[in-house]
Write a structure and sequence with these properties.
Length: about 170
């Protein structure tokens, strides 16, 4: 983990650690208040999240600000955002569980269901306003073709990984 950082009033959270980046581009959103976090601003919450060590994949407070903003755009709480949104290759990505939760809370798509979920395949039936609109699936054969099947997470939790891919395919 990187060393803890702190905000300086005259730097507007221009973090002073070697591996960090400045929040200059995120200043406006960083000063916005966050929900029930005791009236903290986004940048204060981002610093706490980063410094807590609880979110090991946060490279710096700037990344936390961007995750919090992305989650806010989707109507998510700060904790849901920090635990369920990740950046891969510079793009925000939601966990399969988060995508599925958003589907299930939608009155339009709430009838969607998991048709099959095994260690070999996952199939999801997508219903819009009660009408079947299609299915998405992901199999271990698909994972092998994509070069995923031998990765650690795929060997340990194939069911969950297949679910994540099937949801993201249909989402």
């Amino acid at each position: 983990m990187s060393e803890p950082v702190s905000a300086s009033p005259d730097t507007n959270l221009a973090v002073q650690t070697p591996a960090s980046t400045a929040l200059a581009a995120a200043t406006v959103i960083a000063d916005a208040p966050v929900g029930p976090a005791g009236g903290m601003s986004v940048k204060e919450l981002a610093l706490h999240a980063f410094n807590s060590g609880m979110f090991k994949k946060l490279p710096n407070p700037s990344a936390a600000v961007m995750i919090l903003q992305f989650g806010s755009d989707l109507g998510l709480s700060a904790t849901t955002s920090l635990t369920s949104i990740h950046f891969y290759d510079g793009k925000p990505s939601m966990s399969g569980n988060l995508m599925w939760s958003l589907v299930q809370r939608s009155p339009i798509w709430e009838d969607s269901c998991i048709k099959v979920m095994t260690n070999k395949e996952c199939v999801i039936s997508w219903y819009k306003n009660g009408t079947l609109r299609g299915e998405s699936s992901f199999t271990m054969e698909d994972a092998k073709l994509a070069g995923l099947a031998n990765k650690d997470n795929w060997r340990k939790w194939p069911r969950n990984m297949l679910f994540n891919r099937a949801v993201s395919e249909g989402f």
